[in-house]
Amino acid sequence: MNATMIRTRKLTRHFVVKKEKVEAVRDLDLHIESGEMVALLGPNGAGKSTTLRMLTTLLSPTSGTAEVAGYDVTTNQRGVRGRIGYIGQGNGAAHSQRGRDELVSQGRAYGMSVAAARARAAELISSLDLEGVADRIVSSLSGGQRRRLDIAMGLIHAPDLLFLDEPSTGLDPQNRANLQEHIHRLHAEHGTTIVLTTHYLEEADHLAERVIVIDHGRVIADDTPARLKADHAGDRIMLTFDHEDDARRGVAHSLGIAAPAHVEQDGARVLIEADGGAQLTPKLLLSLDGAGITVNSVEVARPTLDDVFLKLTGRSLREDAAIATPQSAITTSQENAA
Amino acid sequence: MSTNLITDTATVFSRELRPVLRNPFSVIFTMVQPLFFLALFAPLLPDGAGDESTLQWFIPGIVVMSCLFGTSATGSNLLYEIQTGSHERMLVSPLSRPALIMGRALKEIVPMFAQAAIIVVVTIPFGFRLHLAGAIIGLLILSVFCLGLGALSYTLALASKNQEWMFWAVQQTLIFPLLLLAGMLLPLDGGPGWLRALSRFNPLTYVVDAERALFSGEIATAAVAGGVVAAVAVAVVGLLIGTRAMRRA
């Protein structure tokens, strides 16, 4: 079962944009085993999609090698193509066609007989809740229905290895949850190896067993979501006091209790980053109360992958917070992480 | 079941054809312009459309025009599929690259046959005389031309995938000079020497001349041979550069 599914060695891709060389992917060494569920996480332009396009034969590497499902992506493209499924950022089914027709022709493209392709199409239509819309023209389907049809297209030949490029971009939260459920089931029930790219942290956190964080074309972290969070970011305890004076005393007091923590004061508020925040908080509150410092409110948050990304790169992954964090804050947190 | 160039081409061909079969009226939409030329231009020809020999001369040109308009625009379908993502999905599949261009281009032959049949049927009441054997050979030659032109249209689509306007700019810029220089609407015999010289470099001229001979029942003629050579040349060039473009896509 633990056979190698993907192995890349120094995989590199350059683009020339306005006469300047852009290194989209640099010396990427990846090893993914059969049955893994991996998310490539990174901001837009990090090199995730370029990596995926090289692994699926859509783009040839500038240098380095990649072996996918037992075949080399440069020397045996047909071999790779026959073994993998790919769900791109766009719609696999043409808008002018009917969904079921596209599923059958997709099956034919992978060498299935007409009868086998029809049977498999019917099976996928049913399991992806597409019965009502499969015989309608694709352009009349809603975004969520089209995305489920895309999944069906990618699964027609029951591939052992499935690539998904930004699967839930543009979907509303409900459709996103529904899609993630389908992907999760596919992995759980069929043991399909899944490699997906995403810039949604929740998606990587929720779906993947292994998260590979990519930034500027390089891997900067590679572990389970839980380990990444444990290693790179602590729980966050936010204490709010009535007065700034209390907060100042609170900082001094807190440092005594949560020794290795990173403590930061901002007006009447104090932020403490530490492991085991849920256990630490009651102790902290009792002790502060004992010292006669009144805490107005408290908030405890588990670390997110965004915190991890922030620690690793100094930048937030969220689009609405894409502004770089001041350099001093990064240094502090890195010192604390070390 | 294993796949090869022929099964792959059949897969792409039948996929392309399916929307046409699901909506046969689409065949008529793409031939609206040739039908207008037939209805509104033919009566202006020197001898008038009532004259049998004028119709015999004009109709084969309209059949070629219908093929030219429909087939040269077919790349826009691919352009749309590039934009929406389904072309990428096909590129990831094991379908052979030549099949991706050949299957698509071959499909153009089907609406071409249907449109030719419609043109012939609507003009017979006005005195057009059909020489069936010649017409069928004519349409087979036109099929070969169609295959090449379709491949060229898809090549243009692949080349303009990042700027859609370029596809239409090139297609619209080329289509009328090609059509006029082939003597499709008016005979070039009375035209100036430079115009006739230019028309000899237009492969479409030879195809139109061959169609005229064949639709009049003249089969074993030099014009027909010229049409065959021109159609085969367009098909070979179209498929070669089309396959190359698809491999690089």
TrEMBL record, chain B:
Residues 25-249 form the ABC transmembrane type-2 domain. PANTHER family: NODULATION PROTEIN J (PTHR43229). It is a multi-pass membrane protein. It is found in: Cell membrane; Membrane. The keyword Membrane applies. Keywords: Antibiotic resistance, Cell membrane, Membrane, Transmembrane, Transmembrane helix, Transport. Belongs to the ABC-2 integral membrane protein family. This is Transport permease protein. Coiled coil: none annotated. The chain crosses the membrane at residues 25-45, 57-80, 109-128, 134-158, 165-186, 219-241. InterPro entries: ABC2_TM, ABC2_TM_bact-type, ABC_2_transport, Nod_factor_ABC_transporter. Pfam families: ABC2_membrane (PF01061).
